[in-house]
Design a protein that fits this description.
The protein has helices at about 10-20, 35-50, 70-80, 90-105, 135-140, 155-170, 180-185, 210-215, 260-280, 305-315, 335-340, 355-365, 385-400; strands at about 5-10, 25-30, 60-65, 85-90, 110-115, 150, 175-180, 190, 285-290, 295-300, 325, 330, 345-350, 370-375. Helix content is about 40%, strand content about 15%.
Length: about 400
């Protein structure tokens, strides 16, 4: 067929290009399969686009750290200073980074974590694919935390969501995860050409400059001025009036150390308000309606998309019609809650043993447990449509016989 207007690209290469497009200048990492291609891509495009042709000066910094903990610390520090920085890793790396992730959440420092998932637990199977880091990333670190997650389904979305991740991190002043996987990240995909918009500008969120600070009696780092849970920040070194303490220990709205119960809870409650605001900022879910009215639905995310699309066609030939909603982000958007209410049975298709997305839905949405039916595939190979067809057909037959 005619492939004009299409490109052959891996998810990792598209992700690296997306990070460059988003304005990232710092990448810190420790090599780990299957994410290495992300930094290879970022390095290649930085050498092409971030070197001053006149002076030869490089406008980027790529650091191979001694381990994942160090990489996370470098990323958080670079973002705190005002750069856009990220780290590509996989599940074991996120496990090691968890304490730093909690620090960035509580101190409210933008940071981007690209997790190209592989088979776990432990070392697992580094060259096989899985979707088993959903719960790990949603609540990474000890204490009460919740982190935005983006779920690309193909390299085109890897590019777009990498850009969105940086804007989201700065708007929300929080760690943001993008969960790809080996299937998307390392395999070549035929996708429509990527869109490069020269008019794109970073969304840095609520950043106060010297002129803003001149008009203020006092800058209060953690004061919720607008009621959306997102406070105003300053970048270090720009103006003495914008100085504040950054700490991972208990702090009040001024950034001062505290062990006062009310002051501590004030900050933690505001972070929950910010989480609710995040729902309006993350990508919407994608709905595909069946050809006729049905009370059956399928929820899936990421690389399970292709198997579900094929399975729906095969099920329709058997007379089983299902609506399909592809989740693209956590926190869940309004469409997810509407989809759950609109269907009697919802099959949750995912590539892990423990039904992690189903668990997340049960935690974040009320009174739906009896309507969620898991279809699970976790042997390390990409999910086939047979898995979905068998799961849906068997349940429909059981219900008909009951």
């Amino acid at each position: 067929g005619d492939n004009s207007g299409n490109v052959l690209i891996t998810g990792n290469e598209a992700t690296g290009l997306g990070c460059l497009y988003a304005g990232a200048t710092v990448g810190a990492w420790y090599p780990i399969t299957p994410s290495t291609g992300v930094m290879d891509s970022f390095t290649k495009y930085c050498e092409r686009f971030r070197v001053d042709s006149a002076t030869g000066d490089r406008n980027y910094c790529i650091i191979q750290a001694e381990d994942e903990l160090a990489a996370a610390g470098m990323v958080i520090g670079a973002n705190w200073v005002g750069a856009r920085a990220f780290t590509p890793t996989s599940g074991p790396g996120i496990s090691l980074m968890s304490e730093f992730i909690g620090f960035a959440y509580y101190a409210e420092i933008p940071s981007v974590f690209i997790n190209v998932q592989r088979v776990g637990p432990s070392t697992g199977m580094p060259t096989r694919t899985q979707q088993s880091d959903v719960m790990l990333c949603a609540y990474a670190s000890h204490g009460d935390t919740k982190h935005p997650i983006l779920f690309p389904a193909n390299p085109h979305e890897c590019f777009e969501m990498a850009v969105h991740a940086f804007d989201l991190a700065e708007r929300l002043q929080t760690p943001v995860f993008m969960l790809s996987d080996l299937d998307i990240g390392m395999n070549d995909w035929m996708i429509p050409e990527l869109d490069w918009d020269d008019s794109y500008r970073w969304d840095r969120g609520k950043v106060l400059g010297p002129k803003d600070l001149e008009k203020m009696d006092r800058f209060v780092r953690y004061l919720d001025v607008d009621g959306d849970g997102i406070t105003y920040r300053t970048l270090p070194g720009e103006d003495p009036k914008g100085a504040f303490f950054t700490r991972g220990s208990g702090h009040n709205r001024y950034g001062a150390y505290t062990e006062d119960s009310d002051e501590y809870q004030d900050v933690l409650d505001r972070l929950l308000v910010k989480w609710k605001t995040a729902k309006s900022m993350v990508p919407d879910a994608v709905l595909n309606k069946a050809g006729r009215n049905t009370r059956l639905g399928i929820l899936a995310y990421g690389s399970s998309d292709g198997a579900v699309i094929e399975a729906r066609d095969r099920l329709a030939e058997q007379g089983i019609h299902v609506d399909y909603l592809r989740i693209r982000a956590f926190p869940f958007t309004a469409e997810v809650e509407e989809f759950l209410r609109a269907h009697d049975t919802i099959f949750v298709v995912e590539q892990n043993r423990d039904a992690q997305m189903r668990t997340l839905l049960m935690l974040e949405a009320n009174d739906i447990a009896d309507r969620l039916v898991s279809i699970l595939h976790y042997n390390g190979q990409p999910i086939p449509s047979d898995c979905v067809v068998r799961g849906v057909s068997a349940h429909v037959e059981e219900e008909a016989a009951a």
